[in-house]
Design a protein that fits this description.
single chain; alpha/beta; 42% helix; 11-stranded mixed sheet; 339 residues
Length: 339
């Protein structure tokens, strides 16, 4: 082959490689594993864009994005509690983007975006609470808990499980909720009292209720929709909205600043805000309230209007300084205590 033809072939190969490269998306997901997989596969089927999905809890994903910030490897981060998404926005780890789908969303989803300079957006909401295995409760002759403070009773020692707030957005929401519900001093007293009854701090936020469903743990502190998933799946799990009131999450989505596949990330972002994409939740028994007004909410989903919700301060507890301060205080004053 002549040098001229060889150069032409090389150029064509380069263009083809570039086109192939552009049809990829690296997708970081912090929702439940089966939902993450369904979102990745459905977007790939709808667009032909090749999706590489990694599932980690929101605290872990935030840490990964921060560690990769000098050379970003991910394109879009979908799911998980809003606080670490807000912290990522504050630290400039995520990109500003206003989707044409925005006018279809509930006000709380747009408020999440506005509080972060349009570097994230709300995709679902869900209330914090806990669930318990009714068979294990009866077998251990334990009273039925109805309030947060019930979980501090001595008889629950070794029967309660929650995630570690350093790795789990669910557990960080729990920590931030106690600060707002009881005040900081009493809130940390609550966390210290709860620590005495904890049998394990898990990495993932939904793990405690999955363990309760399997009969390996009695009470799991989780978002209520995760407990509903276990109950609907046939496990003897009862769901509790604590009597004192509770916090909630706005599950969020962000485009990673410096994404290698920015156009594909924007396509995913727009698609993920559509009612069709949000309705996929029903296929995997994800019982969050979707952010698109036209999406369907399952009859089994917790009714947010019937739950005593606090006025959760997302701006404060999603800020980098406050999150770091509370986690350090929890590490220093709670996790080190004997059990």
């Amino acid at each position: 082959m002549s040098l001229k033809k060889l150069a032409g072939a090389s150029a064509l190969a380069f263009v083809a490689a570039g086109a192939a490269q552009a049809d990829k998306l690296t997708f970081y997901c912090s929702a439940q594993e089966d939902w993450c997989q369904l979102m990745a596969n459905s977007f790939q089927d709808a667009t032909g864009i090749d999706v590489a999905m990694t599932r980690k809890s929101s605290g872990e994903t935030f840490a990964q994005i921060k560690a990769e910030s000098a050379n970003p490897k991910g394109d879009v981060w979908w799911g998980g509690t809003g606080d670490p998404h807000l912290q990522a926005a504050e630290e400039g780890l995520t990109a500003e983007y206003i989707s044409p789908m925005r006018d279809q969303l509930h006000p709380w989803a747009i408020a999440q975006a506005e509080s972060a300079g349009n570097r994230t957006i709300g995709i679902y909401s869900g209330a914090l609470g806990y669930g318990y295995n009714s068979d294990l409760l009866a077998a251990n002759n334990l009273p039925e808990p109805a309030c947060w403070n019930d979980l501090l009773k001595p008889e629950y020692k070794g029967h309660v499980q929650m995630a570690n707030p350093n790795s789990s957005g669910t557990a960080y929401t729990t920590l931030a909720t106690m600060m707002q519900l009881f005040g900081e001093d009493e809130g940390f007293d609550f966390m210290k009292g709860l620590h005495k009854n904890i049998n394990q701090y898990t990495k993932s936020g939904s793990a405690p209720i999955k363990a309760a469903g399997r009969g390996e743990n009695t009470v799991g502190i989780v978002f209520m929709h995760d407990a509903v998933k276990q109950a609907v799946s046939g496990f003897p799990v009862k769901v509790v909205a604590p009597c004192e009131g509770t916090g909630y999450e706005i599950g969020s989505m962000s485009i990673i600043d410096g994404a290698r596949n920015m156009e594909e990330a924007k396509k995913f972002y727009d698609w993920a805000l559509s009612p069709e994409a949000q309705n996929l939740a029903l296929q995997v028994n994800a019982f969050q309230v979707p952010s698109n007004k036209g999406a369907e909410t399952s009859d089994s989903a917790p009714d947010m209007s019937q739950i005593k919700l606090i006025d959760y301060d997302f701006k404060k507890y999603g800020s980098s300084d406050e999150r770091k301060r509370l986690l350090k205080k929890w590490d220093d004053e709670v996790s080190t205590l004997p059990q």
